Amino acid sequence: MTTKLVIGLDGEGSGDRALSYATDLAKRIGDCELLVAYVIEWSPYSFQTAEENAQRHKRREEEISTAMSRVVDPAVEGLKKNGMTASGIVRHGDVAHTLNTICEKEGGHQIIVCRSSEGGITKRIFGSSTANLVMSATVPVTVIG
Amino acid sequence: MKILNKALLAAPAIAAALPAHAQDAMSLDERVNTIFAQFTGPFVNLIFAPLPGTSFPWIVLWLVVAASVFTIYFSFVQLRYFSHAVSLVKGDYSDPDDAGEVSHFQALATALSGTVGLGNIAGVAVAVGIGGPGATFWMILAGLLGMASKFTECTLGVKYRNEYPDGTVSGGPMYYISKGFKERGLPGGGALAILFSVFCILGALGGGNMFQANQAHAQIAGIVGDYPGWITGLVFAGVVFAVIVGGIKSIANVTEKVVPFMGILYVGAALVILLVNYDQIGWAFGQIFAGAFTGLGVAGGFVGALIQGFKRAAFSNEAGVGSAAIAHSAVRTKEPITEGFVSLLEPLIDTVVICTMTALVITISGQLLIDPDTGLYMLDGSAIATVDGNSGVSLTSAAFGASISWFPYVLAIAVVLFAFSTMISWSYYGLKSWTYLFGEGKTSELIFKIIFCVFIVIGAAASLGPVIDFSDAAIFAMAVVNITALYFLMSIVREELRSYSERLRSGEIKKFAH
User: Would you call B420 an interface residue with chain A, using a CB distance cutoff of 8 Å?
Assistant: First the structure.
């Protein structure tokens, strides 16, 4: 049975450590597939102007394309060069909730993320995405320091 | 069109005259007012012409009949699908794979930010100040019936919108009129769409702009003391210009986040006042029901109350006007009718909840003077006499201030923010109509945006009477064209409703697990 590991990236340099750990773990497991996921923070309950709404689809496509080309594709390429079976995915939503949903939907067995790069008042009030993921995930989560 | 041309020609001349006469501010305001009333008078008179042999404006009947027809034609859709509409807004039926697109909630919030505002604060005060508390009853009824009008137009707005190759969308009555008529083989769709666009531009300049600037100035002047309106106009015009022309999104972003907060604060304050005066709520509702059928001494009796109630409800929630169809058309959904369901919540929130709260606070506050001998309202001209002669937004401010002394200051900030937010929304509605007429393009868009900003100055400088008349007339003129088209296209919506309800019942359309 193939083991599937989901690697959550946030576009920061610390993502490399998550990729490196996942590669190492996958080699030890053997039959393993890696899925690189990037979640664009987005809420269906935010407020927008009519003009922003009219351009939303275009912006969404641009955001997905940018995330793919700048974060996900290079990571997937790197994993493939190391002999891994890898693919990538970009989604919008709440980071913790969406990463877990991706993992469930794709049949993932574990989520690997880096320690959160968030800070300031948002982290103090709402907690970090990583902390929220650890508390709400339905699969094991490994947090790389 | 002729009126528009005259207005457009007059606008730059008035704007150009501003600096030269800055030192003679009062006479400038008066001059603006006179010129404005002169140009808009015939248009206003036509829209508000009474039915032969009565004092009942035909346009009010037009809106009531339409809302009633849609309510019956769709078998009280506003009641049958109310809970489904709430589920849609909660996202129960939204595909998680579509995350990042405009959600139903966002479309509703955007449309509400264009409607919740001065109509709920100043408009209700005008209705209650002239038509008495009884106007509230008719306002609520108009709100409930108007839910069906909103459902019809917003369904069509999504179904017939234009989707461009770059992923942007444009929708609204002008698109569903031209496409829908063509699809059904009906003549005149193109002409009606053009007419709607012209009226929408006038509506954007009137109710969506001048009325907002005018009442924002009145509110600020009420706090800091009287000063020339054109000064407020110039400041507002500068900020709006920065957003819609300069593309300074941060101002719009802050406003879009603060406005909902102000809306909640406003409703919260009204609730506190009602709770503190809970013993008077029964009496206030008694005044509303008694006034609805007797008038309680207001000018025109119960017909006067009815006219004011329906007029201000239409002005506040814009049901049947067509503006919401422009705002709602941005949602990406496979089922256009879902946006119709969501939109029917708008008149409920705007009119039935928020407007009623304002009316109750004004009634309970004792600002409206009652003759102790007869129990009827005392008149000052055609309006009800008030404690300090207040009308419009200053009446609402005084009513809230009677219970919470510092609230007029909060209200002043709310009015300014609501006015600004409504202006931004209507600048978009007007722009969409403008580009429908003159084509998409940066120069074309810039011309409209500059005209829009000039009218902010005119609106702030003119007195309330001509501005409110023109604002009403322009918005109702949109409803004349839009509702005519809706009668011809409502069978398309019924077919959508039949198909959707069948698939909903069969379980083909189901909730997503989130």
Answer: no
- How many other CB atoms are there within 10 angstroms of residue B242's CB atom? 15
Strand intervals (E) in B77-171: 162-163, 169-170
10-residue mean pLDDT profile of chain B (514 residues): values are 37 44 56 76 86 82 92 96 95 89 89 82 88 92 94 96 87 95 94 95 88 85 85 92 78 71 88 93 92 80 84 84 90 89 94 92 92 86 85 87 88 85 89 91 91 91 74 86 97 97 93 76
State phi, psi for B510 to the nearest 5 degrees. Answer: -135, 165
| B101, B109, B252 member nearest A57 (Cβ) | B101
CA distance A118 to A102: 21
DSSP B417-472: HHHHHHHHHHHHHHHHHHHHHH-S-HHHHHHHHHHHHHHHHHHHHS-HHHHHHHHH
Task: Give the CATH number, domain containing residue B92.
Answer: 1.20.1740.10
Contact A47 B257 (CB under 8 A): yes
- pLDDT for res B65: 93
Q: Name which of B94, B101, B428 is nearest A51 (Cβ-Cβ).
A: B428
Domains in chain A, number = 1
**Residue B465, phi then psi, degrees to nearest 5:** -50, -65
- Which structural domain, as residue segments, surrounds residue A64? 3-144
Q: For residue B383, give the 3-state DSSP assignment.
A: strand
Q: Measure the CA–CA gap between A38 and A69, rounded to whole angstroms.
A: 11
Q: Which residue has the higher pLDDT, A50 or B363?
A: B363
Q: Which chain B positions have a beta carbon within 8 Å of A60's beta carbon? A: 100-101
CATH number (domain holding residue A67):
3.40.50.620
Distance from CA of A57 to the nearest CA of B (A): 6
* Containing structural domain, residue B354: 2-16+24-506
Whether A54 sits inside 8 A of B168 (CB atoms) is: yes
Cβ contacts of A55 on chain B, cutoff 8 Å: 167-168
Position B514 in a domain: no
pLDDT at A21 over 60: yes
Q: How far apart are the first and last CA of chain B?
A: 51
Measured at the CA of B75, the angle between CA B69 and CA B76, to 5 degrees, comes to 85
Instruction: Tell which of B94, B97, B98, B102 to mutate to test the A interface (max A CBs under 10 Å).
Output: B102
Here the tokens at position B482 are 């839009």
Q: Which residue of B has its CA nearest to A46?
A: B106
The total domain count for chain B is 1
Which site among B88, B97, B98, B101 would you substitute to test the A interface, given the most A Cβ atoms closer than 10 Å to its Cβ?
B101
Cα B22 to its chain centre, rounded Å, is 32
- pLDDT of A127 reads 58
pLDDT (average), residues A92-99: 92
